[in-house]
Amino acid sequence: MTRLVPLARLCLAAAGLTFLGAAQATDIDCDPSARPAGTSQAQRLICESALFSMGYQRIYADQQRLLKAGAISEADIAAFRQKRDHCDSAACLDAVFRAWRASAAQARPRP
User: Fold this and answer.
1) Nearest to residue 63, comparing CAs of 11, 104, 8?
2) How far is it, in rounded angstroms, from Cα 27 to Cα 57?
3) Which one of 15, 46, 83, 103 counts the least CB within 10 Å of its CB?
4) Rg of the chain over all Cα atoms, to the nearest angstrom
5) What are the residue ranges spanned by the domains of the chain?
């Protein structure tokens, strides 16, 4: 029995590290020790809100999928990030996310 407890802890630790690695799949690093001093207010809002964080992870995944399919360009992603980083409130960020979802729904892969 005493051998199972350390094994269970080891498994939980490994699962936690795997989750942390997968969680950092975007251009925004929410680790406070890794964040540069010039982090924008929008990035802070995304990191501090689970809803914004999950929403941004979905947007990032959509952007990568659409980029790979040729439906959008790197310039489209850069324009989105510029709008995102100019936000200084949750309402602004919500509007930028909503606008992205609307434009992504209309994006079609290029032939």
Assistant:
1) 104
2) 10
3) 15
4) 18
5) 4-106
